[in-house]
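User: Structure tokens for this complex, please. No commentary.
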Amino acid sequence: MDEIAPEYDVVVLGTGLTECVLSGVMSVKGKKVLHIDRNDHYGGEAASVNIESLFKKYGNYNKGEEPWKKYGRINDWNVDLVPKLLMANGELTNILVSTDVTRYLEFKQIAGSYVQQGSGAKATVAKVPSDASEALRSPLMGLWEKRRAKKFLEWVGAFQEDNPSTYGGLDLNRCTMREVYEKFGLEATTRDFIGHSMALYQTDEYMNEKGAAKDTVQRIRLYVNSMARYGKSPYIYPLYGLGELPQGFARLSAIYGGTYMLNTNIDEIEMEGGKVSGIKATMKEKSDEGEGMKFSTKTKKIIGDPSYFPGKVQVVGHLLKAICILTHPVAYTDNSDSAQLIIPQSQVGRKNDIYIAIVSSAHNVCPKGYYIAIVSTIAEGSSNHHLELQPGFERLGKIEEKFMGPPIPLYEPLESGRNDNIFISKSYDATSHFETTTDDVRDIYRRAEQEELVVEGLREGDTLVGQE
Amino acid sequence: MTSRVSTGTRPGARFAQFKLVLLGESAVGKSSLVLRFVKDHFDDYRESTIGAAFLTQTISLDDSTTVKFEIWDTAGQERYKSLAPMYYRNANCAVVVYDITQASSLDKAKAWVKELQRQANENIIIALAGNKADLVADHPDKRAIATADAEAYAREAGLLFFETSAKTSENVRELFTAIARKLPLEQAGARNMRANPRQGVDLRPEAPGTQGGGACNC
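Assistant:
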């Protein structure tokens, strides 16, 4: 086909969120982008799928049966494959606003943020206090502890990175978070919910790392400020599911001239002197009987997700995930239409937290009366993965349908890409939000473009977007 | 994310906003049709779409009824059949364009109509536009698709039908006005209509009332 240009500034492989954000910002900055996905849909691992696709993906039904038929219209379902939420004040929100991708999407609050204390029959689930006054009302702490927590949260609220007089006499560049907790006299259970449900660390390693206290304080501030933005929880969520996010950034890229090709396999990555020089590929729809359309084009840079470069990535862990369909809200979440519930690792004798993300028809991801709860954690053993998630399942009550595959490998690139100009993204990790995804976006941009990504002002002074 | 419905300044005045999507093969003149409608402007040598997020244009149907179209361009994503489902999401109406001088373009248009019926709202209003009518005005031999054939197909499939010219503006306004007249204005306040005010939260930092509690209007 004549429309494929002989050369592109960058070829992007995979339409996951990381790739689509990069494709979008690079197109806006005037780069000529060719964006390819081998699948017939956008989103890759970050897609949202309908109920029929979900059953077919996990294969948990007998041949000849069509169990999805009892769940209403299949396209009323948009089930996320990645259990994440957006921090209202986080970097992804910032990028969405700066690029005007918010025009294509609508967001709703997640109704509540909860944490578990204790385990089994004695477990209590309570709202995560988000400021000093909520700390005073929280059932998570005794009377004296509440006052200590209030003092701590007031200190966090007043903290300014560039003003050491707000450090409270602590050497935050060197001390550990454990020392900070000790200074405020906080008990282990309080440290647990602060570290895991506010700072959103998934293990306890952060407590002993020298100089990491400042990062912890910043993470708590992000939580508190995100919470203050809309009031109910620090999280927001796009209507119709997370799969809308990559689509929105892909549209941004296309509007600025990015070329999109789904159903396209990469046949060869051409190299010259150790660096990328081009690609050979074939576009072919599944229903297409013929050989498809073969083409080649030159490029000096490739950005792609790990699945396109199996030889250039390493496994850094395994994510366990179970997608559960419910017909009731989750107990102790105030009948919320949505929630994030964190079970800190120490409460259930683990090293990694268990997360439960709950959304429902309020977010146009399923028909009325249904709830989708995704239970996830990092695998700690090589078997009995179902048992590892069990404390999460216990919170859910009756489960209509459970989709759980083998542990999902988490990949990271082996090299920075500076040698061969192939820049590879990381897998979506086990964190509850997209902050590490946007860190990866910035990191790849820095590696590929040798400058910092500045999204502020991207929409200003151009005439392409915003012709209202 | 401004309010999508208002009662207007006069009592009884109606104002509603609808999402309209454009579909059709590359180079049939989708963007040109919209530019004619929105800006009353035509470029002979327009390059393929580097579009806008969306364009808007308002039509007054009568003294008290105003319809505002939020028009989404494919941004070229149709070229390799890579339109995202988001494009069809909540579209109230669609203009499917073909080129009356290109025989294959009507077949492509028919395929897009099928795709719309599969992906979009059930009650989406679809108009079929045979564009480039100016090319056959002086050279009738250039016509590759008979008006009667396209019209018969449109009738059978329940589509509005016009032959248009973005270049001379023939039937362009008529096309959009006919769509506006068919839109369910009475239900403009009904749920799930794009004509509704956005139900979600406003992410812009400068948005009023985003500080502190009670900011959510959901």
